[in-house]
Amino acid sequence: MHRNGPVRILLVEDNRHDYIAFRRALQKSGKEATIRHFVRAEEALDHLTGNVGSYDLVVADHNLPAMTGLEFCERLLKRQLRIPVVLLTGQGNEHLAISALKAGVSDYIIKDPQQGYLELLPMALEEVMRRAEDRRARFEAEKALRKSQAILNATQEIARIGGWETYLETGEQVWTEEVYRIREVDADFQPTLEKGLDFFTPESRPLLEAAVNRAVETGEPWDLELEMDTAKGRRRWVRTIGKALQKMGKTVKLYGSLQDITDRKRLESELIKAKKIEATGVLAGGIAHDFNNLLFVILGNIDLAKEDPSIAGRTAELLTNAQKAGMKARDLTHQFITFSSGGEPVRKRTPLDPFLSDILRISLGGSNLEYQYTSKDALRDVEVDRGQMSQVLYGIIDNAKQAMSGGGILRMTAENVDENSAGEPVPTGRYVRICVIDQGDGIPHGNLQDIFDPYFSTKQRGSQRGMGLGLAIAYSIVKNHGGRLEIDSRPGEGTRVMLYLPALPEKPAAEKKRALSVKPETGPRVTGPGRILVMDDEAMVRKLAQKMLDRLGYTDVSLVRNGEEAITQYREAMETRRPFDLVILDLTIKGGMGGVETIRKLRQIDPDVTAVIASGYLADPKFAGFNITEFKTAIAKPYSLSQLESVLNRLLGTGKESSTHA
Asked: What is the pTM of this model?
């Protein structure tokens, strides 16, 4: 009767004769059983309250003192003591049967000796046990299924993937909970095939319809990555996989999955964007280096020409105009440097409220636009290169001005964003979010994915617009600050540009080492004597530097192409007791030892070497990290004759003095 041994029965019977007959009937049938006998129902009920797990079956007589068998069963049910119960009664009727079912009775047996109930009793009890075991197994299976379904639902929510089925005969669709969440519809939404297709964008829907039609006609499965709009208007990327179920060669059902892959697509887009900008940045860095050298030669020769007393009048004016154009070209070169890996920002702690207000006032002064600036709470300070960040914001505001050429209101907002709490597209942390919102025509969706690409532009080509590097440079600058630049735009609804900048702690950070910079200095011209060594990998630069030094009265000048040659010449000069008074080292040498490594090796030869670093990359992090004693000062290329004179005046005018930085 019980698969793990004798069946354990609790019997409630006040008639001793019937109790003995019950025991004998079970013994005669050969069924193994252990019986615990109670005369009073109250005692049996109290005993079961703490020991229900010790029994497999309860058998109770209906006619008991103080409490009927039905009342006993009702109390078992009220106390939630779940165990199969068989009711023994002298007579049965429909009313008793209904009452017994309501009381939780599994079965009842009429005690009729003429029908041989004692002979049938063991089989009846075994049937009750079998049904109870079936119910228990079904309950456990349903419990396991509910648990499995809960795990599946949680997994689908984490993976953002749901399932669906479409019955072709009716067009009805069935979705799992996650599909409802992905599409942002209420639980009472009644999906159909047509309604499901309606979520996809005009560009994506034809692709999915074609795939569905092929699946219906041929059974061909599909696996597509498409764009859709949720019921709340949010644009999402989804991966939809579908298969066909066919019977007798005919497709009767489609089924598959829908996964939200928006985050993955965003990361892929960021990676592609970063790779494009990185590649262009490498190119820009190379161009900037070479262009800087060419500008140095051009501007240096103009400088030397203007020093000639015979140059005057119209010729001097033309040279001055050429020099001004060269200085503008130098500024353009600095933008290339910013865009390249050498354009790391030189950051300073910056309170944003006055910084942003000034930029708006300066940018929109005299324009036909109104502007509104609002900030929430007390904005945290940020650490930014103010020049670079101004360039970013001026460019964004200029784009907004062009988008609203007919006038309107430009809005700028700033607020603190904590711990990525709003699901923002930045790593977890403390940020300040700056939004610039225009009322222009917006950007077509097809162009949004390309707006950060170098040289992409929707504007007309010309001297003042359409060069296409603006947003690419802005993206590079913000990224170098550890932040993020996002753009949200739809045709006819304007454009929202969002900058996320990492916020500083409430207390000011420790003051950082000051980067080397050039400060012009005036004073009387100092001329030789003095031996000077110039290192540069460009012959034109070396020759021009020699001419400039010669003009300043330094005629004993040696020229070398790289660090190896500089070390050799410096060592020979020391050995012959004709040491160099000053060395000018280029920071970057193509295919050779640059200024960083060279100065360290020169200091091994002569700890008191007087060295000047020359480069267009004065914001390079490698340069900013120099110990101040490694170089006496720095000079930014392209430098002018007066700037070179200032450096020489300071370093050689009073002999070798303590380290300073220009």
From this structure: 0.45
